Amino acid sequence: MSRVRRFFRTYKPFTRAGMQEMIAYRANFICFLIGEIMSAFIMYFVWKAVFLSTDRETFMGFTMEDMAVYLFISFLTGYLTYSDGAFSVGEEIIDGSIAMRMIKPCSFEMCFLFQELGSRIISVAMIFVPMVAGVEIYRCAVSGFVRFQIGAFLLYIVSLLLAYMISFYFNVCYGFMAFFFKNLWGTTLIKETVVNFLSGAIIPLAFLPSGLAAVLNILPFASLSYTPVMIYMGMYSTSQILWSFGLQLFWLVVMFGISKLIWRGAVKHLSIQGG
Amino acid sequence: MENMIYAENLRKEFKKIIKEPGLKGAAKALFKPKREIITAVDDISFTVSKGEILGFIGPNGAGKSTVIKMLTGILMPTSGVCRINGKIPKEDRKNYVREIGVVFGQRTQLWWDLALRETYAVLKEIYQVPDEQYKKRMAFLNEVLELDDFITSPVRTLSLGQRMRADIAASLLHSPKVLFLDEPTIGLDVVVKENIRSAIKKINEDEGTTVILTTHDLADIEYLCERIVMIDKGKKVFDGAISELKHNFGDVRTLEFELTGVPDFQLLDYSRHFKMKENDIRAELDGSTVRVRFDTSKVSVEEIVSYTLRTVHVKDLNIKDVEIEEIIKRLYRREVSL
Lengths: 275, 338
Fold this sequence. Notes:
The structure holds 2 protein chains of 2 kinds. By secondary structure, chain A is an all-alpha fold. Chain A is built from 13 helices and 2 strands. The two termini of chain A are 38 Å apart. Chain B has 2 domains: 3-246, P-loop containing nucleotide triphosphate hydrolases (Rossmann fold, 3-Layer(aba) Sandwich), CATH 3.40.50; 251-321, Alpha-Beta Plaits. In chain B, a hairpin with a 2-residue loop joins strand 8 and strand 9 (235-241).
């Protein structure tokens, strides 16, 4: 028990530092947030146009109301599970500034993780609560009764946390690519677009051809966004939920393992090339 | 005396990929890289006693920083052993770094976007410094490094001198047993340099902190260290007290003659008169003063004085003490062999 407490005591200040950095760059954060919300609304109006142009009530099993919930919750999920805290790790190894981390008695990825959690706490406070409330009010207004289910919501939170951890370790691995590319700006654009598509953030995976959808469902990207959103919407049965939790855990372990392997190689590189 | 730092046959090799010039060279390097092994540190052994300040000097690229990086556990030695405070850095990094402080003059360990005070609060938790001790420590560091003026400013707004003082304070917050300083006075003005020197001295005297210091400013060395280790091209070339260095190579002396007429200088030609190489005797004119540096093992003070007095009119004469800087300059230029 005291070890756990010591662990949190050590890394808690990073969370505080992350929150302070977020506040220091608040204008940047607010602009970014406005941009993201605008793009969520654009997607909403595009889908609305799609639904208006057909006579059918549902489209691939989604009503317009489902679609709206899907879009906003998947935007929210994508936003909260987005992780770039560890992007700099590759660059830090190249330019040797990783040395400044090595002289501190803490683990590297935990420093990154807890620092990023700090900024996430602020995001949650600022957009999570209003966004979920907004979506629920919309659902209630359209259907005429309260659709919010506490059980599904709690399962969503669990899935969201798993999704964030997968995203974190995935991006730790991605950060090491700076070794080869020197600068990640261009590759990040590609990665974001591909991940957004593969994770169902743009189009629900259910809309894709069933073969493709089945493959994408198993890939780690679905675990990042699609899985938690489907759980939130109550679209998954109990067995599907258990299956997807298992899958999320599996990908988390895989990503964690890969990042550890790359890290070991990177430190060796540091030792060979000089800091 | 107990050894705080113990290094035996430390050796570090780097692999370097040689790229040939041009696009063709780059393509070739991609598919069939030509590797070259560079020995940055070549069998260096030394020890530092508890409470000692050791000056680590050498020209640029001599391997000083590489040694510091191995001692602090950032780099793994290719071969050889180092043990600091009874621990081997690579074996248990997290526990090892808990008891050392490190400052790299060229980098900062502070959080760029945080106010300085917050940075210290973060470090307090990382090193688990108890509240009471933290308060005392901050008061002490404030006193010796004068942090008060800028402790509420974000680190990114600090000047270089402020940042360096803040960095040194950060490395001392947890009362480390060993302090590694890699060029702590680089790029600083004289006042800040002195401030930092006296802070290092005070901490060493008050707490018995063992310090290992690399620098290019020999005034740092003269003020702080009793003993120096000099390395060049990865090899240790001198290890001993500063007084020993002066004693062994103290044959370099400087005489100053103030002349009555400036044109007289042209009459003096020491190297031809004494048939000595340019390196062994050197004369320069500064205003109306002629400064002669020479090797007393080759020519005596008396001979120089009498030749000068015979040749020109001298108003004043000054015999200067041996300067460590002069010895080291000559060592760097490899004029003196060890």
